[in-house]
Write a structure and sequence with these properties.
five-stranded antiparallel β-sheet, 8 helices, about 30% strand, elongated
């Protein structure tokens, strides 16, 4: 089996050494061909070594790791972001179905990320490209990466009417597109889509408020959506939903 060429980009020397030593000890199939302590040095290292995989710190003095990916436009390498906890950065990464590990590095999280890299074999390069486009897109035009079976679909969040739980999966319903069954839980998407106009109405339902047509008090309370479906509203969510809908419904 061919060795996997990797580069570590992190401004903290201890962070680079720790990750390099961990890879050497537990992942003999990965060869660290270069380390870099800044975004600029990282770009130069990638140009020189053409790696298969880049472990990329997000926050660095001369620019964040996203700028490194942006520089290449259509990257031929895969990326695992390495970061101290940053809710907004992590949500952006998850929104685009990218991988990350938290500092200090946990061997189990690292192994999971590397296993996913191995399973992908060849990254659908649109994932990184879409991640960069999202940074510049207006809200309705942003796209979320949805893993469906053996492929990834890129869907505008402004076209999602609602999401419905199906065990460890989630069904996505759109304005003018077929339903998608996605291999993540509704809890995952509630977190990822927080701040994008979605609200959890019930343990099994997440709706885009843009597509609520009316609220009905009978039958315990439910929302009528623009696609004519009815979505139940739990008692504890009723007041929050009505407050969010003020000024939106006729």
């Amino acid at each position: 089996m061919d060795k996997i060429k990797a580069i570590i980009i992190d401004d903290e020397k201890n962070g680079r050494e720790n990750l390099a030593n961990t890879l050497l000890k537990y992942f003999p199939g990965i060869v660290v061909v270069a380390e870099a302590d800044s975004a600029l040095a990282g770009i130069e290292a990638i140009q020189k070594h053409a790696p298969d995989l880049v472990f990329l710190d997000i926050e660095m003095p001369d620019g964040n790791g996203f700028k490194v990916v942006e520089f290449f436009g259509d990257p031929t390498f895969d990326v695992i972001f390495v970061t101290a906890y940053d809710h907004y950065a992590i949500r952006a990464i998850r929104f685009s179905a990218l991988d990350y590990i938290l500092k200090p590095i946990n061997i189990l999280e690292l192994r999971s990320a590397i296993n996913r890299f191995g399973q992908r074999k060849k990254r659908d390069q649109r994932v990184l490209g879409q991640f960069l486009q999202n940074a510049e897109s207006a809200l309705p035009e942003k796209k979320i990466a949805l893993a469906t079976g053996d492929k990834i679909e890129f869907c505008k969040i402004g076209q999602i009417i609602r999401c419905q739980s199906d065990g460890n999966y989630t069904n996505f319903y759109f304005v003018d597109a077929p339903t998608l069954l996605v291999s993540k839980t509704l809890n995952d998407f509630e977190e990822i889509l927080d701040g994008y106009g979605f609200i959890r109405t019930h343990k099994a339902h997440l709706v885009n408020l843009m597509f609520v047509r009316s609220f009905h008090k009978n039958d315990g309370g439910y929302l009528k959506m623009t696609d004519s479906t009815s979505v139940p509203v739990s008692r504890r969510k009723k007041e929050e939903i009505l407050e969010r809908l003020k000024g939106q419904l006729p």
